[in-house]
Amino acid sequence: MPAITNKQQLLNQTYTALKKRYPLPTLETEQKRPLLEELIFAICREGTTHVDAAAAYDRLHKLFVDWNEIRVSTVQEVADVLRPLPNAGLRAGWIIGVLHAVFEMNYAYDIGDLEKKGLKQAAKQIARYFDSKDLDKLGLKQAAKQIARFKQVNDYAVAWVMQRSLGGHAIPLDTPTARVLQRLGILEDVDPDDLESSRGSIEHVIPKARGPEFTELISIHAKELCTEKDPNCPACPLKSDCPTGIENTKKPEKEKPEPKPKKSR
Ligand code: SF4
User: With a 6 A CB cut-off, is 179 part of the ligand 1 pocket?
Assistant: First the structure.
């Protein structure tokens, strides 16, 4: 199947080039978070980088006493702590909603038992925490409305905890990651409202062992060079393999010189 082989080759080249460009600390040495914490980290992480998400997540830990204090705070209060993360209000509403849902179900902030349920069951259960109907019941209508508008966020968070906590193979796909993969020609016809289908197609071509590093590298690249507006293709290590980069760095054809007017005698 040549199409897959080409995609695999391009992904391998992308991985190698980005790893040289953005050396990452070894991810295994990072302390493993309990499942609920990883879920909340995923909310901070979507659409941004590890460093920016970790800074916001650390502020949550420092400035609130515990998860319960966050649950009973207003969206505004939590959003103020998350800033400068983009969409801080949306994320804050979502975090509060998840904490409400978990607390209502367990009367505690612990969903560690999901790890024993097997991947499929765990993923289903996690998706339930993001169900807008649950949030509606809890009186968080505003948050529920916003979350329903950004349905792909749900899939990102589920994929994130599958990859980081549950030992499954998933590539969390957010808008910046999809943008880079689309420009590289690895993803085609991305529907921003259905990133789940696109996620399935790249999970076939990225080996599980490379998943976490690949996720980090693409997010950094999306922030540093392959930005939404005016990607810096001339400085990109992928410019000779990336169709968008090739197009953007093409030298303009030299204009033919105007013929010299003949001298009149
Ligand atoms: S060459 Fe340009 S469009 Fe392609 S990945 Fe690099 S920055 Fe993005």
Answer: no
Domain 33-164 is found in CATH 1.20.120.80: no
Ligand 1 atom nearest to 225, measured from its CA: 7
Ligand 1 centre from 47 Cα, in Å?
18
Expressed in angstroms and rounded, the spacing between residue 242 Cα and the centre of ligand 1 is 6
What does the pLDDT look like over 133-147, one tens digit per residue?
Answer: 444 444 434 444 444
pTM comes to 0.82
Give me 259's structure tokens. 């013929």
For residue 220, how far is its CA from the centre of ligand 1 (angstroms)? Answer: 13
Domain 1-23+171-242 has CATH 1.10.1670.10: yes
Q: What secondary structure, in 3-state letters, does 2-59 show?
A: HHHHHHHHHHHHHHHHHHHHCCCCCHHHCCCCCHHHHHHHHHHHCCCCHHHHHHHHHH
Residues 181-217 pLDDT 10s? 999 999 988 887 777 788 888 888 899 999 999 999 9
